[in-house]
Amino acid sequence: MEGTEAKFMENGVKKPVSRDDLIHFIRSVVSSNEKQQEKDLFYVLDLGATRSLVNTWFYNLRMVQPFYAVKCNPNPAFLKEMAALGTGFDCASLAEIETILSLGVSPDRIVFANTCKMESHIKYAAKVGVNLTTFDSICELEKIRKWHPNCALLMRIKVPETSGATFKFGSKFGALPDEIVPLLRAAQEAKLQVIGVSFHIGSRAINFHAFEDAIQVAKTTFDTATRLGLPKMHVLNIGGGFTSGPKFTEAASAVKAALQKYFPNEQPGNEGLKIMAEPGRFFANSSFTLATSIIGKRVRGGVKEYWINDGVSGSMNFLKYGHDELVCTPLRLTTKNPTCKGMKTWNSTVFGPTCDPEDIVLKDFELPELDLNDRLVFHNMGAYTASRGNDFNGFKTSAIPTYFANRN
């Protein structure tokens, strides 16, 4: 982590940094490090945006405790802020659990949300007191019975794929309808505690009526467990799939309506239903901005072509799946109009730095004339960016530094 920071406060409270302030801050970082080539590529973390998103979550879904999905972005400073703001954490491996515990987070704020875990990881969870996990197979129950029999369990169920999500999980995760009774009976025979149900409607959902379909299936599973004589379930994990902005308000309304319909007599609290969620993208995406540098250029067939020092093997790895649009601001360093507003633009292509011919970041994109060492600033770069990038061709995504645009 880098020490350079800018503070943006209003009445003593962190607030998100404006786009103009962010660009000004990036220029200041570039200026202060102009002789240090390794600082040409960096992230900016806006902790004010993070706090605002957490406040938005609790304002709209105060009955749902978020367990941030660490896989989305494990940046240490970001995780520390999330911990301070009172969220729990969705961990999928020993390493992720170690990371969260190292922040001083108590193990009861962690759900080991991986339905197929290595035995060594289950042993570690038992050792450190992470006592809540998910399962969707007989094999997993056998491993848990052997290595962590006191662990509370959430049955991950497959729900109808009606959300229009970009990424669906049903082919890999979740018990099928005809598997639910055998799994509950197997847990009962093994004397394991199944305390609730978990599901995920898919990442980047667009049809939030899917929450009603999913919560209905969850309620049926609750009722099935009661019919089989298991202790009453009291935990519902509604997974992720949330994005910030107006879509979140729509999703929150759908969740609340479905809970009222299928769990009308269950009030969240010590004696009632505990509701969890596992959002990742919602908190991480807009909290991070990526500042890249122009490292090469040419003109070919009337198209201006640029190379930058990050690409689809690094922070833009998600472009391989063709589902995300990049939000880009050009930044010229030697002009009184740094963001190029009103300037003439040309059809442009932007390549990443590797020798992979498919390392194309932008194509048929309008950009002004840019020079070597000018910048392309990419917004909303916190979700599945650094965490999914690799070090192909020696370009080390893991080594990209982070600056803080808003920090006490």
UniProtKB/TrEMBL annotation:
Q: Which GO terms describe its cellular component?
A: cytoplasm
EC number(s) per entry? 4.1.1.17
Coiled coil, from the record = none
**Catalytic activity of the protein:** L-ornithine + H(+) = putrescine + CO2
Q: Does the keyword Lyase apply?
A: yes
The Orn/DAP/Arg decarboxylase 2 C-terminal domain extends over: 42-382
Question: What enzyme category does the UniProt record give?
Answer: lyase
Q: Which keywords are on file for this protein?
A: Lyase, Pyridoxal phosphate
* Cofactor(s) required for function per UniProt: pyridoxal 5'-phosphate
Q: Which PANTHER family match?
A: ARGININE/DIAMINOPIMELATE/ORNITHINE DECARBOXYLASE, ORNITHINE DECARBOXYLASE
User: What's this protein's name?
Assistant: ornithine decarboxylase
What organism is this sequence from? Hibiscus trionum
Q: What is the lineage of its organism?
A: Eukaryota, Viridiplantae, Streptophyta, Embryophyta, Tracheophyta
